[in-house]
Design brief:
By secondary structure, the protein is an alpha/beta fold. About 50% of the residues lie in helices and about 15% in strands. The protein contains nine helices and eight strands. The chain has helices at about 15-25, 30-45, 65-75, 100-110, 115-130, 140-145, 160-170, 175-195, 220-230, and strands at about 5, 30, 75-80, 85-90, 90-95, 135-140, 150-155, 210. Strands 1, 2, 3, 4, 5, 6, 7 and 8 form an eight-stranded mixed sheet that branches. A hairpin with a 2-residue loop joins strand 4 (about 85-90) and strand 5. Helix 3 (about 65-75) packs parallel to helix 5 and helix 7 crosses helix 8 (about 175-195). The longest helix is centred in the last third of the chain and has 20 residues, at about 175-195. It is globular.
């Protein structure tokens, strides 16, 4: 199996590192979070922003089967563009649209649904098997659930403050103390939701290599993972 699994919490550098590693190795890159975000965007656009998952509070109307049916009918899918799997909704590239705040605010809710996770896992395994040259996959349960037999598993971490700074910089927002505190709190809430959910909680695989990126420039992160990959996947 030519799969590198890169897991970690939000804003730990997973996607940037995974994409750069894939490019360096000549492999494809798959961001599992993009697929969850694409499903969330589809739900919000087609089933309504004000609702929630059935059984989770007043006004909740989204049923798991309704969400799965929507993803199949539109459809929501991954399309290989160059060496990157990009998310599409109803034939439209949504790589930029899925990064808006209203999607970020609701994606953990959608990603916690067992039926949605199963659907996403099946799609990821299918596209990876269809690309035997090698795929770098990043997410939160890649090494523990999606590809537990991946020969190389990396778990990226970084301090909450550094992750918040990166997220603000990524969005082009000012990094003032108040904004940084609010973003740190938002990431902490996301961490709690991801690490305590009953299905596929965020945690490193037993055989994952831990890499703290708090003080590491992106290029050094990439170099370290590429070196591990070259040792694990000799040509």
């Amino acid at each position: 199996m030519r799969v590198i699994a890169i897991d970690g919490p939000a804003a730990s550098g997973k996607s940037s590192t995974a994409e750069a590693v894939a490019r360096r190795l000549g492999w494809a890159h798959l961001d599992s979070g993009a697929l969850y975000r694409a499903i969330t965007l589809a739900v919000l656009d087609n089933l309504g922003d004000e609702k929630g998952v059935q059984g989770r509070g007043a006004g909740a109307r989204w049923g798991p089967q309704q969400i799965i049916a929507l993803t199949e009918d539109l459809p929501v899918r991954l399309v290989l563009v160059g060496q990157v799997f990009r998310p599409e909704v109803a034939g439209v590239d949504v790589a930029e649209a899925i990064r808006v705040e209203r999607v970020t605010r609701r994606v953990s809710e959608i990603a916690a649904i067992p039926e949605v996770r199963h659907w996403v896992n099946v799609r990821q395994r299918e596209v990876a098997l269809d690309y035997p040259q090698g795929v770098v996959v990043d997410g939160r349960d890649i090494g523990t659930v999606v590809f537990p037999d991946a020969p190389l598993k990396i778990f990226l971490t970084a301090s909450p403050g550094e992750r918040a700074r990166r997220r603000l910089a990524q969005r082009g927002d000012s990094v003032d103390p108040g904004q940084l505190r609010r973003e740190t709190e938002a990431l902490a809430a996301r961490d709690r939701a991801d690490s305590t959910r009953p299905v596929a909680p965020l945690r490193p695989a037993a055989d994952a290599i831990l890499l703290d990126t708090t003080t590491l420039p992106l290029e050094e992160q990439v170099q370290r993972v590429v070196a591990l990959a070259q040792a694990r996947f000799p040509e």
